[in-house]
Specification:
Length: 275
């Protein structure tokens, strides 16, 4: 038989490689795998029959997807297209092409549909989570050939916005959609500071004594009631989402708000509930 005997694909009989997936009844080639859902990963427990059934179901979904009226489109890396009238959506986890996403797979709605998305009913969604993944690093300057901290210290925060959904589906139970293509970077003076908007509201509107102030500054979250009452949309707050606002990072913070607002709008449309 030989050490490098190539097992034929159990679905189409074509060639398979060393890295191809293996199901209960044999290996599945790259072309046949591309016909299954990108959210599907239970290959070990999948039979040839269940894979054939899934591919047939996705062929039917493709016909449904082409008839959709997608009045809402969201995302830059992963994408989600919503048909509010029919209460359905389609999505794809990664629209990049190549290892580093330098070329795009899609330029239009039809390109996304042609990727073969699954059609999901709003009512099938059982859980919806907005996951904001944050990493940070300290910015330093060079002094006498050495890397030293700024005074006060400066940090860069990298934010990635991902939707995580659980749904009642025959072939997969969860899906994740990363909205932003490249992390939102926010340059911040000092560590990110979270505040209690309710206490700030009580202190300013009701004049309650004995509340701690952070470094004697009026610190608050820009989505608090206090901000709505006392600030205009065009005025820069002292702090926003825990970041210290400056003319240099204000647009970065507004970009954070853009993706957060996008995620919350998708959640509201699909689940009918506010975040």
């Amino acid at each position: 038989m030989g050490l490098f005997h190539k097992e034929p694909c159990c679905l189409c009989g074509g060639k398979t490689g060393l890295l191809d997936k293996k199901c209960m009844d044999g290996k599945v080639c790259k072309e046949c795998r591309s016909k299954t859902s990108p959210w599907f990963d239970d290959w070990k427990n999948a039979s040839k029959l269940t894979l054939e059934t899934q591919i047939a179901m996705r062929t039917a979904d493709l016909a449904l997807a082409k008839m959709g009226n997608y009045n809402k489109v969201f995302g830059e890396f992963g994408v989600i297209l919503i048909d509010e009238q029919k209460r359905k959506f389609i999505a794809f986890p990664d629209t990049s092409k190549g290892l580093f996403g330098s070329q795009r797979k899609v330029k239009s709605l039809n390109d996304v549909i042609d990727l073969g998305p699954d059609v999901i009913d709003f009512d099938a969604v059982q859980d919806f989570e907005i996951d904001i993944t944050e990493t940070s690093r300290e910015e330093k300057r060079t002094e006498n050939g050495q890397q030293v901290s700024y005074i006060p210290p400066r940090f860069v925060y990298m934010e990635t916005f991902t939707l995580r959904l659980k749904q009642d589906h025959t072939f997969f139970k969860s899906m994740s959609i990363q909205l932003n293509d490249g992390a939102v970077q926010i340059h911040n003076e000092g560590r990110r500071v979270w505040t209690d908007p309710g206490r700030k509201l009580a202190a300013n509107l009701l004049g309650l004594p004995g509340l701690v102030k952070e470094e004697q500054e009026a610190v608050f979250d820009n989505e608090s009631l206090l901000h709505a009452f006392l600030r205009s949309d065009n005025e820069m707050p002292d702090f926003s989402y825990g970041f210290k606002c400056t003319p240099l990072n204000w647009e970065e913070i507004r970009r954070y708000h853009y993706y957060l607002a996008m995620a919350r709008e998708i959640q509201r449309i699909i689940t009918g509930k506010e975040a």
